[in-house]
Design a protein that fits this description.
- It comes from Actinomadura rayongensis.
- This is Tetratricopeptide repeat protein.
- Pfam families: TPR_19.
- The chain is mostly helical and 191 residues long.
- The chain has two domains: 75 residues, Alpha Horseshoe (Serine Threonine Protein Phosphatase 5, Tetratricopeptide repeat), CATH 1.25.40; 86 residues, no CATH class.
- Helix 7 packs parallel to helix 9.
């Protein structure tokens, strides 16, 4: 099992729209995973498919299993779990996960993007703005530190999404334009 195999399965699911079948298949694959993919990563992907299918309880269970497994995943499984918990109305539990992520001060800008999106969807515009700003600052720190090219490229890939989220939240909050908006303008002009 490789990341490409998982990507192919998810691509087929986009074509068919059968997220339930994909979630079940990924959960089965997680039990027999071998090769270059962690069990936790497959569980996380299965949880995402349940989310797309609207079964947030099943998604939460798989996100928890991914966390308990402890294997390598993309992003932070707690952000995905927080999203499912918000959708289940388990607000204090979801907020506690967001606080836990904050306490860990992640260095992956995609974690900030995921949390910012979840908070925006929940109507927490100020929280979205803060997380998107902090994520952009992580990218800028990577840039300033002269990190290896692959690390810088991954961080840069997140910057536009973070700045777009921040812009939406800033508009909703009625705050004035600032240098982050100028960065977004520059990115869009150079795209």
């Amino acid at each position: 099992m490789t990341e490409d195999d998982l990507d192919d399965l998810e691509f087929d699911t986009l074509r068919t729209g059968d997220h339930i079948a994909a979630a079940r298949r990924l959960a089965e694959l997680a039990e027999a995973v071998s090769g270059g993919v962690s069990r936790a990563n497959v569980l996380l992907r299965a949880g995402e498919q349940w989310q797309h299918a609207g079964d947030h309880e099943a998604a939460a269970a798989l996100y928890r299993a991914a966390l308990e497994d402890g294997g390598e995943t993309y992003g932070d499984a707690r952000a995905y779990l927080a999203d499912a918990l918000f959708k289940l109305g388990r607000i204090p539990e979801a907020r506690a996960l967001v606080d836990d992520i904050r306490a860990d001060a992640p260095r992956d800008p995609e974690v900030y993007r995921a949390v910012a999106e979840v908070l925006y969807e929940q109507g927490d515009t100020a929280g979205c703005h803060e997380w998107a700003t902090n994520g952009a600052d992580v990218v800028l720190a990577v840039r300033a530190a002269g990190a290896p090219a692959d690390e810088t490229a991954l961080a840069e890939d997140s910057l536009e999404a973070l700045l777009r989220l921040r812009y939406r939240a800033r508009i909703d909050l009625g705050r004035p334009e600032d240098h982050y908006d100028a960065m977004l303008d520059d990115l869009l002009k150079n795209a």
